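Chapter summary example: a protein plus flavin-adenine dinucleotide.
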Amino acid sequence: MDFDVLVIGAGPGGYHAAIRAAQLGLRVACAEREAVGGVCLNVGCIPTKALLHAGEQIAAARHAADFGLTFGEQKMDIAKLNGWKDGIVKKLTGGVGALFKANKITHLIGEASFVDAHTVKVGDKTYTAGSFIIATGSEPAKLPGLDVNQVEIVDSTGALVMPDPVPARMLCVGGGVIGFEFSHVYNNMGSQVKVIEFLPNVIPGADADAVKEFAKSMTKQGIKIETQTKANRAEKKADGIHVELESVKTGEKRTEIFDRVLVAVGRRPRTDGLNVAAAGVHVTDRGFIPADQQQRTNIAHIYSVGDVAGNPMLAHKAMKEGLVAAEVIAGKPAAQDAVAIPGVVYTSPELAWVGLTEQEAKDKGYKVKTGTFPLSASGRAMTLQQTDGFVKMVVEADTDLLLGVHIVGPHASDLLGEAGLALEMGATATDIALTIHAHPTLGESVLEAAEAVHKQAIHIMNR
Amino acid sequence: MDFDVLVIGAGPGGYHAAIRAAQLGLRVACAEREAVGGVCLNVGCIPTKALLHAGEQIAAARHAADFGLTFGEQKMDIAKLNGWKDGIVKKLTGGVGALFKANKITHLIGEASFVDAHTVKVGDKTYTAGSFIIATGSEPAKLPGLDVNQVEIVDSTGALVMPDPVPARMLCVGGGVIGFEFSHVYNNMGSQVKVIEFLPNVIPGADADAVKEFAKSMTKQGIKIETQTKANRAEKKADGIHVELESVKTGEKRTEIFDRVLVAVGRRPRTDGLNVAAAGVHVTDRGFIPADQQQRTNIAHIYSVGDVAGNPMLAHKAMKEGLVAAEVIAGKPAAQDAVAIPGVVYTSPELAWVGLTEQEAKDKGYKVKTGTFPLSASGRAMTLQQTDGFVKMVVEADTDLLLGVHIVGPHASDLLGEAGLALEMGATATDIALTIHAHPTLGESVLEAAEAVHKQAIHIMNR
Amino acid sequence: APTQPTVQTREDGRILAVPAARQLARELGVDLAQVQGSGPNGRVRVHDVTAHVEGARAVPPQSAQPVASAPAAPQPQVPQPQAPA
Ligand SMILES: Cc1cc2nc3c(=O)[nH]c(=O)nc-3n(C[C@H](O)[C@H](O)[C@H](O)COP(=O)(O)OP(=O)(O)OC[C@H]3O[C@@H](n4cnc5c(N)ncnc54)[C@H](O)[C@@H]3O)c2cc1C
Ligand SMILES: Cc1cc2nc3c(=O)[nH]c(=O)nc-3n(C[C@H](O)[C@H](O)[C@H](O)COP(=O)(O)OP(=O)(O)OC[C@H]3O[C@@H](n4cnc5c(N)ncnc54)[C@H](O)[C@@H]3O)c2cc1C
């Protein structure tokens, strides 16, 4: 046996699994056919956040006039922007490479495919291992009629390279997390951005009130949102890309012209080239390789983690599952038993949530109480010049048990730490309300939302 | 009896007490001789944070060059800056006034003084009440030899009015929280700033490692820090304010010249004009009016909350104590039983902590383990261009019980929410390590610090 | 009759209890030091306090049990949080 564990894919799921397995004393290999770090570090979480930060600094410079700070002519060096972003990616992927070395993980370069349930081929070599962890991730879903050429019509990977000049008119097809993050970037960079979404609401999965507040702020910032709208086809002409849009409700069609079209209509699991059939691993109709709470597939010594294992396709879920798989293989009592998996849209304001939405809680039969505290009443938000948003808490009425927290606002993702821990600890709104939160912080709004559940928030009237 | 409760002072301690008492159905009055909102809203927490934000935007604009965003000539309209800051204060104090009205709290304008244990005089009227809450706060301590004139030699209140032009050379006497917040503001505004501190370390009370990391970043940003140094006297001359500085260790003296000197050497409780003696309320030698866990003074129906009740002099402590006093008076089972009171320096990076420092834990006899995760290994910190700092966790070795969390970094104050809740809930490092934290967030560094306690952080080598 | 549970006391004298449990104990006049915590390190949660009260109520009041004879103890409406499925 060449290795105790062979991990396929070095995205967040795979590299967390590999490192934890090595920490636990196992002999570990990790195969990767593209770049260490996977989608997340190379063309996902990290480069988008870099661009979002840059875009937000442009907006911040504009708002600085409110307190008397003004600037002369502003210049954006697009090549430098792309280079800076790439530098961060390189630093992080280089870091993962260094961690592989330091943890004595064998990095197998190339595409891995199963020969049988105990053997994997990478390049022209075959390797045996006691356990395998499939962490092959996902790729952008395609939309018929809109062929991605990564120039005018791009997917999330193409959209990461900011063109020079910035497109004047930008269409984002898909009003999910990824679509809005890019729309926010391009809007701040100066594009006129329209987002279309097939469903009646953007950011499916988030709390309806939170989505409403979020969409209001995006609209105020200049992003046009059209729900229940689809894009049928796109054609490049001299004056731009002609896109046929259709109202889902009325069937009415019209053509609009854009300079760049982003297709962001979801992601699908990736198992091409992996030849899992040779190992007898079950793949669902939709291409997922499902796993149990220990991340085991139908074949007991083959594990599946991350995007390929199922929804939600989020890096922190992949990481958790990677750690669980590694620990289980090392004989530890690990399980993916999380009460809730947080979600974040890293725009400004951010939209961040963890746990049940009000509607989900009701659908599950909970008797629900909610408490909401608007950031317009937060002193800290005022000093940060960012008062759009609120904290909303969903609580089981009889027991006061926290069920979900939904935040629109600056640093919302940082406030999720408390909310997530509270859910995992089985905390009540009272536990949060009785905990001293530093003043003046955005976290006080979490406290006030908990107080609002009991109609005892201090800085608003409780009705 | 005119009122069920008469609150003296409308700072955060007083106004929280008044509003909660009203929410609980009591007839409430609140006396205030200056401005509603107290030190905190008028000349403390809020205006400093406004100035800090403005200063940080200047620094951010400079760092934007890293990703290709440059600006022409930058102008700071100081009058507008002061006006913007005052506007936020006005909005918040106006808000408290509106909450008083909406909650039917009688606002008594003027200085309150006890006539006897059941009667208070405000202006030329006397009022009786069932209970009294003393929330008279604190004021800046004075330093012999440095007479505050609020022009060249200022205390924190004078320092809040940014002069035009900004002083070229600024001395801050006192390296505590308030001193550093102002030093950071003035440094970002373009002053050459020196901070002197009598003690061997700045930010007394914070964890030694955290203070070291914090001071390193402040120094890197251009603030000169001299510890074990005191200021003996200051004299205004034609070329500036001549200040005699003395080394505490060697006794060596020298004179340096500044354009503005800030005296920030602590605060002292304020009971002048209150005539507590008439009520028989005990006052300590240092001027505090101590209270028990229910905020009762030695006189059972007279309560004391906030700065006047004792250290730490922090707004969120005042708020908590205000709520407790009100609830106790209303017959509720409240107590000031907080495990820990957080502290924050709102500079960039922020220094924020809650619970025991490593040294305090050791001094209390705990067998201690620690875990530290540097922000230089955080992807989120990189995208925010703010990688100075770390998260340090102090844990009881045998039980894994969390004892303290110490953070230097951006949004550190927002991350305290999780840390504070964890302490109050009696959480272990394992509880935090097993909770999914969204990626990419700064909160992941809290998770990684918890993992580091167990030598299992993913993004660093654990030694 | 059930005997008083032996409650581990920590060396630092701290009784580990979540904030809501501390508040409920005050409300019901329960001495937290007498409550057996079900969490890690003996951490007391809300349901531990209610279970303690119910256990005490099942036993005829004795002078040794301050819980049942606490004057301020109202008829408790006992919340019992359950983790969501
Ligand atoms: C634009 C964008 C922004 C995003 N932002 C966020 C965010 O902010 N937060 C968040 O939580 N999530 C975000 N995501 C989602 C996140 O990137 C994924 O959930 C995460 O990368 C999944 O990790 P993984 O390890 O399962 O797979 P991946 O990251 O997809 O990695 C799989 C790896 O396996 C390799 N591989 C596949 N097949 C083989 C094979 N046969 N042999 C060898 N190697 C193979 C691939 O080359 C790849 O490197 C974003 C995604 C995108 C596209
Ligand atoms: C520059 C600065 C920055 C600060 N930043 C922070 C921070 O970021 N976070 C934090 O937690 N804390 C901060 N503090 C400390 C914080 O302001 C105090 O802890 C807080 O204001 C205390 O609240 P209090 O209600 O006890 O008293 P105060 O806010 O001092 O209010 C007392 C009120 O009582 C009134 N009063 C006094 N005597 C009488 C009388 N006899 N009759 C009628 N009225 C009377 C006063 O006029 C005053 O309005 C800061 C302080 C300063 C100076």
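Key point: Residues A 439; B 8-14, 31-34, 38-40, 44-45, 48, 111-112, 135-138, 156, 178, 270, 273-274, 306-308, 313-316, 318, 346 surround flavin-adenine dinucleotide (ligand 2) (CB under 6 Å).
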